[in-house]
């Protein structure tokens, strides 16, 4: 048996001296480098606070940043879950101190099939504990770069129109303080009162970018303003014209003809998943931004979780196959967020139908990606 006998193992050919690629060209390497420039000041402050409020750990514990009672981010499985373990702002009068306010709208009497989205905000908050404040690809740490709070929920009641008034008042309050509202629904009927609360604080027009499998623009459903109707009523608001409404991902067997007629009459811009597939996400984003921003002062982002293929988001009221892949929708929303938005809603998470919290997790992810992208492009932050 000779020295070069490889005993049947196929060895790889020798690696050449010259690398075949430039390591520094990789996004993965650049993103790691960006992390070095991030502050840790608020993290350090949080540790100090945890130790003060939660007591220093038992003597046997070597890591002295750990407290006795869990306070702040760690461990991820512990604690009272606000969104991303943000401070709960009980006094809504102080919301102007923050760049962003998360608010839940536990409302589902606008549903026309499965109910349960009233538990959406709680589910999204709970699973958001899986996330830290740092995003590797973007090189953003929200804790360090954005002042955020969780306002808790709007007090919705068993009446659609009165709840709409509550929701509009809540969103408008946050907007009026110069803080960006991020709304966790709730069924999609809330799109109208949320938009109304935004629009009354904007001098000029508001464009709408709407990701959905459903067109949601008929006047009424079951004789009420249900979750199939928000954009009919929103685009009746004088400074939210239908020509600035872009609806992306629409299609399949759940789009009522009544809504299609209105979309056609009002001239909204509708893109199906076929459009998305043939044009590509970058082009779709470019077109959506062009339409939504035309003559507008700002843009509202409405993310219906059911715009994603239902294989990824079982926890929703009207699941539908054939929608976006999660990373397509995240990329699209990132490209929208890059140009800045006034507010965002994530709707239709129904946790009773969810599996392993994947639907709620994607809702949380969308919010975080949008906010981090806005920070990265300098569209928000600094309070
Ligand atoms: Mn939908």
TrEMBL record:
Keyword field contains Repeat: no
Stretch forming the signal peptide: none
Keyword list, A-Z: Hydrolase, Metal-binding
Keyword Zinc belongs to the record: no
PROSITE patterns: ARGINASE_2
Domain of life: Bacteria
GO-annotated biological processes: putrescine biosynthetic process from arginine, via agmatine
Coiled-coil annotated residue ranges, if any: none
One term of GO molecular function: agmatinase activity
PANTHER family: ARGINASE/AGMATINASE, GUANIDINO ACID HYDROLASE, MITOCHONDRIAL
Similarity-based family: Belongs to the arginase family.
The protein's name in its UniProt record: Agmatinase
Organism encoding this protein: Paenibacillus darwinianus
